[in-house]
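QA checklist item 7 of 12: single-chain prediction sanity check.
[x] sequence parsed
[x] length recorded as 207
[x] structure emitted
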Amino acid sequence: MTVDYLPLASGNVRNFSISSEIIGNLSMKNIVNPETNSENGMPYAIATLDGTLMLVKDEEIIWSVQVDQQLFALSKMDITGDGNDKLIICSWEGHTYILDQNQHIVRFQTEEPVSGFCAGNYWLGPQNTAVPCLIYVTFTKKILVYYDVNFTDITVKNLLQLIQEDPESNVSELFHEKTANYDKKEIRKFIRWCCYGNHNLRSELNC
C-alpha cells in the first residue's frame, strides 16, 4: 500500500506542529466542488487542534470554520434522519459542535473538561435498538453518556418560515384576518399576546 501526501491550500494544515483529526466516507448530498462545479468524489472533514474545521472534496476546501477552542475529536452521525452525516467535534473544554454540510451549527458544553469523546449509534441494553449517543470521558474519571440524541433540524428558523413550510397550516390566513385593521403598535401587541398573553382573556384584544 502506498500513501500519497496531498497538501491543502491551508497554512494550518501545513503546520506540522498542529495535530489534526480526519474523517472520511461522509454521506452528504449535493456537495459541489467550487473549483470544478462537480458533485463527484467523496467529501471528508479535517479538525485541527488550533480550532479549525474544514470540509474537503477532491482536495479542495469547500468551507472552513474557526472556533476559539482546541478541537481534539471528530465524529460523524446522521442525527436528523435526513440521510446526511453531521460532523460532531469536541474540544478539551467540553464544547461540542454539531455542523451540517451548510455550516449550520449547534453548540453545547458538558459539565467539565473531557479527555475523550466519541459519537455513534449504540445499544444501551439487550432489549434496545441502536440510538444516537454522545459519549464523554472526563479528567475526573467519569463517563458521561448522552443517549437517544435526535434533532428534527439544526437550522434556525423563525415562526413565519415554519408556517410557510406547513402547507396545511392556516395560521398565516388567521393572522392577516385578525390584524387587517391593526396599526403597527396593535400588531406588536397581538404578537405579544400570542406568545405571552393569557389566552383565556380574549377581551385584551377584543377578539
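[x] summary fact logged: Helices lie at 11-14, 159-165, 171-179, 184-196.
[ ] second reviewer sign-off
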